[in-house]
Amino acid sequence: MKTTIIAGYLMVILGVAFYLLSQFVTALFPVLFGASLLTIQRLANNSSREYQATALAAVCSLFAVMLGISSAILGSWTTFTSLVEQIAMVVIAAAHLSVCVSYLANQAGVDNTMQTPEAIY
Q: Which of 3, 19, 47, 61 could covalently link to 93 via disulfide, CB atoms 3.0 to 4.6 Å apart?
């Protein structure tokens, strides 16, 4: 899905930008999640593994949301810039997660057993 690619690149850009602003290594956490999303997306190129890749991408985004919210709430950020980065990571990951969940819910409702090549034509 193109959404996974977009979210992956946005996370990488976010992490690198905030690392350059703050010089804190922990600012690179979005890069870790972005790289994971981009790697998972390569699995989705195989149509038989698209559902599994989307589920993995959703789990990755869920972890990013959980890490961002927990660090923002628990105050493990050191500067206001770090807090802004955590919130931005949560927004990107939550948007990606919602798209993945919608896709997975839609795919679960599709009955592929009746889709024969003869039925398509």
A: 61
Residue 65 lies in a domain: yes
pTM listed for this prediction: 0.82
Cβ atoms of 77 and 26 closer than 8 Å: no
| Range(s) of the domain holding residue 29 | 2-108
Which DSSP symbol is given to 48? G
Domains in the chain, number: 1
- Domain contains 118: no
Nearest Cα residue to 91 out of 118, 61, 46: 61
The per-residue pLDDT for range 57-89, each reduced to its tens digit, is 999 999 999 998 998 888 766 788 888 999 999
